[in-house]
Amino acid sequence: MRLIIAMGGGGFSMEPENLLLDQYIIGQSQNKKPKICFLPTASGDQQSYIDRFYEAFGDMDCIPAHLSLFEPNFNDAEEFLLGQDIIYVGGGNTRNMMILWKEWGLDELLIQCYQEGIILAGISAGSICWFEEGLTDPLNGPLYRIKGLGILKGSHCPHYDGENKRKSAYRQHIRETLMKPGYAADDGTALHFVDEILYKSVSSRKNSSAYYVEAKGNEVLETKLDSVYLAESGISKAENGHTG
Length: 244
Prior knowledge:
This protein is α/β, with parallel strands linked by helices. The chain is built from eight helices and 14 strands. The longest helix is centred in the last third of the chain and has 12 residues, at about 165-175. The radius of gyration is 17 Å and the shape is globular.
């Protein structure tokens, strides 16, 4: 099984007191104590972001590590990443991240990791990157379309309820056929894909949701997806897409 968990928002970087989504990601591995590697490229490998990752995941049943491109901490990126069970991509500037990944060959390497069965996960820029395309938001500028790795078909919009301009810009791009139909996710919601097909939507917040957004003529159709609230579901390793 090939798994991707794309978070619209939440996790240790946004909800340090509510790690339900991060715990859910850890629970998808078949290993009792999985190796999880954090890629903070989109933040410029910000040290405080890396520190928060270790603080959160250091208390979980996993072996955390990170890979830095700004201060390389590896001898062989391919060997390092292919030795992980989970790769978790952080948020930040999607454009800068994609450019750096291409320069270092991580774009092709991450696809290889996916094909080898390593779980891919991430938030914001780290969720957009798995799709064909998404919206990125430069400072003081309008959102614009950006290409991702294309593992998942269609487009993606994170922070659907968390940033004022995201929802309207995404709907406009869909309506004007500037972007393919796709999945929008509120903060606190994650889209769990198995073999490139949406398996379920889960949330760390009771009222957060995910949507499939498409154009119908001159209108935009927004279909709300059923989402499992993790605090009430009891889901951990019991339901992870490997047996569904």
